[in-house]
Write a structure and sequence with these properties.
By secondary structure, the protein is an alpha+beta fold. It contains 14 helices and eleven strands. The strands form four sheets. Strands 1-2-7-4 form a four-stranded antiparallel sheet, with helices on both faces. A three-stranded mixed sheet has the order 10-3-11. A two-stranded antiparallel ribbon has the order 5-6. Helix 1 packs antiparallel against helix 5, helix 12 packs parallel to helix 14 and helix 13 packs antiparallel against helix 14. The N and C termini lie far apart (about 75 Å).
């Protein structure tokens, strides 16, 4: 019955699903098949080079990441959806250029996107199921072995660019992706069959830590997003001065991308900046006690790194800031914090300012 319905009116069904997705706040939906052979080869080469660093989960689960039918048996199509997240707030470059400010990646200034997008995907899946009366659906938001950008490229939502992010020619790259795996043989959308980066390499040139091995290839071990979020231990002293005031993530390669002039502001109120984190002083954040940190990051993706790494990252940024008595005093107060990781980075920061641990 499903095959007959889709054969006769599959296009109309996809159009209806797109309308429901728009009602739920998604900006775009594409349908792809599950052939990721080309991307699987790239992933295996990337992992073999060790570019994943401590993200060992990138190599876990065997081939389930690149073969959707192995992750969810019966899957033959993937719905990939885009939700814009760029909100009003302090101008990003102005924050980056002020060494007294703390730069936090724009995607994490509001509510944790995992929760919001996953809920909307589940609502969409339920609506499809209720409409058809059957079918299998499994929703994912950066929470399982899924090649999100590869599926999005195959679904025609954009191209994987030189900075390894997905770029949409009408919306830039300031958006989240989510997927619904299904056994419905829906008609697929034309894949993105060309990349539109041209000779531009602004993203490669701007990277503070030279994390790009070349176009389309990122060594995560040097990426500030990886270092401030995924990396759990001591950060290489050679990289610390290059991190500037970036304390959670890095948007440099997006900020300079010409295609982001087409980025659309989000309509989601939950993605609006909270607690002034789009324009906060380093010292203010460094002086938060753990209770304040927990309260101010509740429901935020900032929770991922924990309070210890929060202090580690801020200590580096303060070490890179212009010397002042206030900075030295704040660092000295943290010098005996009961964490070797924090102590190490505070000591480094004090040395940068020519100050001693009091």
């Amino acid at each position: 019955m499903t095959e007959n319905l889709l054969a006769n009116d599959g296009g109309a069904l996809v159009a209806q699903i797109r309308a429901w997705a728009k009602e739920l706040g998604f900006a775009q939906l594409g349908v792809s098949d599950i052939d990721l052979a080309e991307h699987e080869t790239y992933l295996q080469r990337w992992l073999a080079a060790g570019y994943q660093g401590q993200m060992q989960w990138m190599g876990d689960h065997g081939s389930k990441r690149s073969r959707p039918e192995e992750l969810v048996p019966g899957t033959c199509r993937v719905l990939t959806l885009r939700m814009d997240y760029l909100s009003d707030g302090a101008e990003p470059m102005a924050v980056l250029e002020d060494p007294h400010k703390a730069y936090i990646a724009r995607y994490t200034l509001g509510r944790d996107y995992h929760k919001l997008v996953r809920k909307r995907l589940a609502q969409l899946a339920k609506r499809i199921e209720e409409h058809l009366g059957h079918g299998r659906y499994r929703a994912f938001v950066d929470s399982a072995p899924v090649l999100e950008r590869a599926l999005a490229e195959n679904a025609g939502l954009g191209w994987i660019a030189k900075n390894t992010m997905l770029i949409n020619q009408d919306a830039g790259s300031w958006f989240f992706l989510g997927e619904i795996y299904t056994d419905l043989p829906l008609p697929v959308d034309p894949p993105q069959d060309s990349k539109h980066c041209g000779s531009c390499q602004a993203c490669l040139d701007i990277c503070p830590t030279n994390a790009f091995v070349g176009p389309f290839e990122l060594d995560a071990r040097r990426c500030i997003s990886y270092l401030t979020i995924e990396h759990k231990g001591s950060i290489d002293p050679e990289l610390r001065p290059l991190m500037g005031n970036r304390i959670f993530g890095c948007d440099d390669c997006q900020l300079v991308c010409p295609w982001n002039k087409f980025a659309q502001p989000t309509k989601e109120q939950d993605f609006r900046p909270r607690h002034g984190l789009d324009d906060s002083d380093l010292l203010t954040l460094f002086n938060w006690d753990e209770e304040t940190w927990a309260a101010r990051t509740e429901g935020s993706a900032l929770r991922r790194i924990g309070y210890e790494r929060w202090l580690r990252n801020l200590a580096i940024a303060l070490g890179n800031a212009p010397t002042s008595a206030a900075i030295i005093e704040a660092l000295q107060r943290r010098a005996a914090y009961p964490s070797e990781l924090v102590q190490e980075h505070v000591s480094w920061a004090l040395e940068r300012h020519g100050a001693a641990i009091s």
